[in-house]
Structures are given as structure tokens and as C-alpha cells.
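Take a record.
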Amino acid sequence: MVTKTKKPDSSSSTSSVSFKDAAHLSGTVKESAQQIWLAGLGAFAKAQEEGGKVFEALVKEGTSIQRKTQAAAEEKISEATNRMANMATDISSKASGQWDKLETIFEDRVSKALNKLGVPSAKDIDVLIARIDELNASVAKMSARGSAAVKSAATRKTAAKPAAKRASKTASARKSA
């Protein structure tokens, strides 16, 4: 502990007091310096002893803070990723809508140009195919009716020939008789 120096007595002689005071002051300074030195050594020893413990505590605290910071950063990254994905989806759908409009406009213009040139459209060809199918069905019905009429006429002719022969034989026999 640091000790306090005493004030010199004013009743003492000047020369003896100053020498005494100087010796006393020197001893006090020496003692104070010794105490400061010992306090520094004690602090150094204590720091060495507890330094490892403090270091470990700081490492634990740093690890904890790093985990919290990393979790917060990952959360922010996840939010940003979701926002970007949503923005990309929105932009993609808008672009797709624009392409659909462009495609429709292009198809309409090409269709009009081909129509002006006299090229039939797919609808026109479908209508023609339907009409051809109807005509084929009508022709098939007519063919079936015509075949049936021809067959019945042929049957009548075949049946009429023997009857005509008989009738002609009968008429010849009557003439001869």
C-alpha cells in the first residue's frame, strides 16, 4: 500500500529539515515504486491465470454471436431469394402474355395475307372435307339404289325370257294349227 508523506515541521532547522525530508521523500518514492511494481506483477500473474478462462468465455460468446448472425443472414438471403423468384415469375408471366399477343397478331396478319392471295384457310379446308364426305355418302346411297334397280331389272329380264319363249312357242303352235 502507498503511504502518505508527512509535512515537514516548520519549527525545525532549514538545513536539517531539507536533508531529512529529502531522505524521507526518497524512501517514500522508493517504497511507492516497489508497491506499484508488485501490483503490476500481481495483475500480470492474475491475467495469465484467468486469461485462458477469459479467452474461452470470449470464444463461446463469439460462437453464439456468429450463430445468431448466420441465422439472421440466412433468413435475409431466403427472403431475398423468394422475392427474386416471385419477381421472375411475374416478369415471365408478363412476357409470356406479350408473346401470346404478338403471336396472335402475327397469325391474324398472315391469315389475312394468305386469304387475299386466294389460299384457303384451315377452316375452309375443313368445310370442303365435310362437304366431300357428305357427297361420298350421297353417291354411295345412290349407287346402292342403282345397283338394286339394275339387279331387279336383270332378274325381271331373266324371268321374262323363258316366259317369252313359252309364249312364242304357244303362238307358233296356234298359228300352225
